[in-house]
């Protein structure tokens, strides 16, 4: 079995054999015809290319294989571009709707500030004026105190403010009479109301 195996270490590569074949056929004499000279020139070029050839090792072949595989994958799939375009259009349409809604709210509701100097009840006196917010639209007016998170609504500004005064008194009495444990937010409301309101006795 060992005798049948050929020792390929000393075999000439196909390119060496080709180089010898071409070299043996490249002797140009002065009596060559034009066609022969043209063929001879082509053989010289081929011989020069063969002489410059360097066999690639396994590492170089692997690199080339990887480059070819990577080159077959597109950087961006067409579907991704289409989805991004649709998403861009959806966001643009949503932004347009938001802007239109803001304009409608701005046109329909008039927001202004006002000051409350008394509570409309002789038992209670304000130590300092209370700043309130009035929001008026085509249907009603809403008066609120953001700091206390209370509001009242009515057909007119005056009615809304009067209802809001009643809400302030109601909240004050509820918090003062509460025997239970208050949470952080109600405690902050009570502390604020105690700074703002003085209840008269008698």
Report on this model:
Strand 4 and strand 5 form a beta hairpin. Residues 1-10 and 25-30 have low confidence and may be disordered. The strands form 2 sheets. The protein has a 4-stranded antiparallel β-sheet. Among the domains are: 13-52; 108-199, no CATH class. It is an alpha+beta fold and 202 residues long. It is built from 6 helices and 6 strands. Helix 1 runs antiparallel to helix 2 and helix 5 (157-176) packs across helix 6.
Over all CA atoms, what is the radius of gyration?
A: 48 Å
Distance between the termini: 127 Å
Q: Sketch the major β-sheet.
A: 4 strands, antiparallel
Shape: elongated
Quaternary structure type: single chain
Averaged pLDDT, please?
76
How much helical structure, as a percent, in the residues?
Answer: 40-55%
Q: What class, by secondary structure content?
A: alpha+beta
Number of helical segments with 4 or more residues: 6
Largest beta sheet: what is the strand line-up? 1-3-4-5
N-to-C SSE string, H for helix and E for strand = HHHHEEEEEHHE
Q: Low-confidence spans: pLDDT under 50, at least 5 residues?
A: 1-10, 25-30
Number of strands: 6
Beta-strand residue fraction? 5-15%
